[in-house]
Amino acid sequence: METPRVNTKDPGIPSDPAMPSKEMLAQVLIQRHTRPVYESMQAACVGIAGLGGLGSNIAVMLTRLGIGRLILADFDLVDLSNLNRQHYMISHLGMEKTKALAQQLYQINPYIDLTLYTKRVTAQNAVSIFKDCPIVCEAFDNAGAKAELVNTILENCPDKTIVAASGLAGYGSANDIKTRKVMKHFYLSGDNESGIEDGLCLMAPRAALCAAHQANMVLRLILNISEP
């Protein structure tokens, strides 16, 4: 396996004497979230497989929460069709999604620890890619790839929890998006029905809603909040 880029600060971000220190950012998060939450988030490592409408938004939310480390994996480049729902801009067109997203995350928190894998996640490499992550977010838009990743993690990594998504397409009621515990180490967000295979569109509001559900479930898992 190729060596991933670790903590690769984007060279396009200039050195700024007004850049807040790590301590300054920590104090703000402690004020907003309390010290126990901040310390739990800082100690956490989460993996995200797929950096599209779900994964890019999950990564941004977890970074704003003060996550200490993210392992991000996606093989794709940003293209024009992504801009209707994914956390990318015109300036990112043609860039690897891993690099484009890292650029944004460092703008939110320049001290976050990022590990980037610009490759397709498969049953053969998923365990190795996410070996350091107690929690993995499944964020693919292909049903087969979703099932493959979930089964791979559940079968080979009994100590890991996977937070997946199913049913977020279209413009149905926001209240239909829910998160449920499928089994001890498997949580599923979405309405479990609305898919692009039914001719529905992938749109920003429901993609972001489902991503928020996944990010919130990750937060609860990190804080050891039990689910029924």
In brief:
The chain is an alpha/beta fold and 228 residues long.
| Regions with little confidence, pLDDT below 50 for 5+ residues | 6-14
- General form: globular
Mean pLDDT: 90
Alpha carbon gyration radius: 17 Å
Distance between the termini: 39 Å
Q: Helix/strand/pairing class, anyone?
A: alpha/beta
Biggest beta-sheet profile: 8 strands, mixed
How many strands?
8
Helix content: 25-40%
Strand content: 15-25%
Number of H- or I-type helical stretches: 7
Protein architecture, described:
With 228 residues, the protein is an alpha/beta fold. It is built from 7 helices and 8 strands; from the N terminus they run E-H-H-E-H-E-H-E-H-E-H-E-E-E-H. It has an 8-stranded mixed β-sheet, sandwiched between helices. Strand 7 and strand 8 form a beta hairpin. Helix 1 packs across helix 2 and helix 3 packs parallel to helix 4. The protein starts with a strand and ends in a 6-residue tail after the last helix. About 4% of the residues have low confidence.
